[in-house]
């Protein structure tokens, strides 16, 4: 399948989400490792529910992208900006790599930077925040690598079995963001 190349990095690019990958995304959404980390473990996601959700992700309060591996044009994850507040110029970012074989290879960090670049340099946002969980150390580490800073925690807010975890809030300001693809295009 051919995907549109909205934001292009070296290892991946971002393509606008549509309903065509509903089966693949539904399988990720029902994968326990992905669902626990996204907080969607209790959701009952069928192919039909997933397709409708994907179709409606790009609206006035959000932008959603497939993360596509550049070497073979394979969709490997999803990234999005949501709860966008254009008056206060802020948003919440969510992202995951659904395919296990593509994790811990730097693709997620590159995709995060592409999403931040879109948010800061296309939408002119000032602050982008992520929400994750204290047990999701790979996400926290990747976000810090991209320039996010921890801004707070909601203690013992997540309970899985007999385990209690904090919600972790991190953000990045536009002046802290580096590696803009947009700047490189403009300064050619």
Automatic annotation (TrEMBL):
Membrane-spanning ranges = none
**Domain named N-acetyltransferase: which ranges?**
12-175
Q: Which GO terms describe its molecular function?
A: acyltransferase activity, transferring groups other than amino-acyl groups
Could you list the residue ranges forming a coiled coil in this record?
none
Q: PANTHER family this protein is in?
A: GNAT-FAMILY ACETYLTRANSFERASE (PTHR43415:SF3), SPERMIDINE N(1)-ACETYLTRANSFERASE (PTHR43415)
Instruction: Please state what the protein is called.
Output: N-acetyltransferase domain-containing protein
Record the organism.
bioreactor metagenome
